[in-house]
């Protein structure tokens, strides 16, 4: 011990380095106690530097269930998730918090860059992925259309047609086939939703409700893009998918190809609709002549 103290007194740089090391250990110890106390009340087990990266990685395949379990254990129905490589995330199921953010003080809670980055390659600058003035401008344009009585009636008519003429007969036929057939209802309802979206927004019918029929290329591309974007949000470290996107490899390459296919299919639908309108207009003009 005396030799060690003599070394410190004879070599000031060593003394300074040793003091800095003790101070650093003290800070880490205090931070460890702080995050341990916080994690016990407001979120998953959290550690200095890495945060809750271990728990997040273990539950990356069931994030929704994991968040639900943590929220159920929280007395405030709100948790704080801190992990290395990502920004601090606050998750809440408290009705008062939700009302405050979405209704009373909406302008103070934008989606933010982390959210828009995840979906930007897929949704672009659409209303679901922008903030501020751009969001308000698009909302005004959309609100006029979606508040129109004719659109609501068209939506309800399309829904009744899909359910009454396709979904229910399909379920009846599957139930009657060889004593019944096991059906993946989630997949079936996903196909129904895709048919509805295409019918209402694009005016086209992909005819992909029947599970035995092949999925349309646009539906497959849409599913791939949605899944990869969801994986971005569930990635333990955001830098990983950003690096893959920069080099155009792996899942990010598949995402790019899927988005290009969706855009190409939609452009083709728009071109065909324009041709139909021009043809109808031409027929009407010739009929009048």
UniProtKB/TrEMBL annotation:
<dbReference type="Pfam" id="PF00067">
    <property type="entry name" value="p450"/>
</dbReference>
<keyword id="KW-0472">Membrane</keyword>
<protein>
    <recommendedName>
        <fullName>Cytochrome P450</fullName>
    </recommendedName>
</protein>
<comment type="similarity">
    <text>Belongs to the cytochrome P450 family.</text>
</comment>
<keyword id="KW-0560">Oxidoreductase</keyword>
<dbReference type="GO" id="GO:0020037">
    <property type="term" value="F:heme binding"/>
</dbReference>
<dbReference type="GO" id="GO:0005506">
    <property type="term" value="F:iron ion binding"/>
</dbReference>
<dbReference type="GO" id="GO:0004497">
    <property type="term" value="F:monooxygenase activity"/>
</dbReference>
<dbReference type="InterPro" id="IPR001128">
    <property type="entry name" value="Cyt_P450"/>
</dbReference>
<keyword id="KW-0479">Metal-binding</keyword>
<keyword id="KW-0812">Transmembrane</keyword>
<feature type="transmembrane region" description="Helical">
    <location>
        <begin position="12"/>
        <end position="32"/>
    </location>
</feature>
<dbReference type="InterPro" id="IPR036396">
    <property type="entry name" value="Cyt_P450_sf"/>
</dbReference>
<keyword id="KW-0408">Iron</keyword>
<dbReference type="GO" id="GO:0016705">
    <property type="term" value="F:oxidoreductase activity, acting on paired donors, with incorporation or reduction of molecular oxygen"/>
</dbReference>
<keyword id="KW-1133">Transmembrane helix</keyword>
């Amino acid at each position: 011990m005396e030799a060690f103290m003599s070394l410190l007194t004879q070599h000031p740089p060593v003394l300074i380095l040793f003091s800095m090391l003790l101070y650093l250990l003290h800070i880490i110890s205090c931070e460890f106690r702080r995050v341990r106390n916080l994690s016990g009340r407001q979120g998953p087990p959290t550690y200095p530097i890495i945060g809750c990266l271990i728990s997040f990685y273990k539950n990356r395949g069931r994030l929704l269930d994991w968040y639900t379990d943590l929220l159920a254990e929280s007395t405030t129905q709100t948790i704080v998730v801190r992990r290395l490589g990502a920004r601090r995330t606050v998750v809440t199921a408290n009705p008062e918090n939700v009302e405050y953010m979405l209704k009373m003080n909406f302008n103070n809670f934008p989606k933010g860059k982390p959210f828009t980055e995840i979906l930007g390659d897929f949704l672009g600058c659409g209303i679901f992925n922008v903030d501020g003035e751009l969001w308000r401008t698009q909302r005004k344009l959309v609100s006029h259309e979606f508040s129109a009585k004719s659109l609501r009636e068209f939506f309800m008519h399309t829904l009744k047609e899909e359910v009454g003429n396709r979904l229910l007969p399909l379920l009846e036929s599957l139930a009657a086939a060889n004593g019944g057939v096991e059906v993946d209802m989630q997949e079936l309802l996903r196909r129904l939703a895709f048919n509805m979206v295409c019918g209402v927004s694009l005016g086209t019918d992909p005819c992909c409700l029947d599970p035995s029929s092949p999925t349309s290329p646009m539906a497959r591309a849409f599913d791939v893009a949605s899944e990869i974007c969801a994986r971005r949000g569930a990635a333990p470290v955001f830098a990983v998918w950003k690096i893959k996107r920069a080099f155009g490899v792996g899942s990010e390459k598949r995402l790019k190809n899927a988005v290009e296919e969706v855009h190409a299919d939609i452009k083709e639908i728009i071109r065909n609709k324009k041709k139909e309108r021009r043809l109808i207009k031409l027929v009407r003009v010739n009929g009048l002549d």
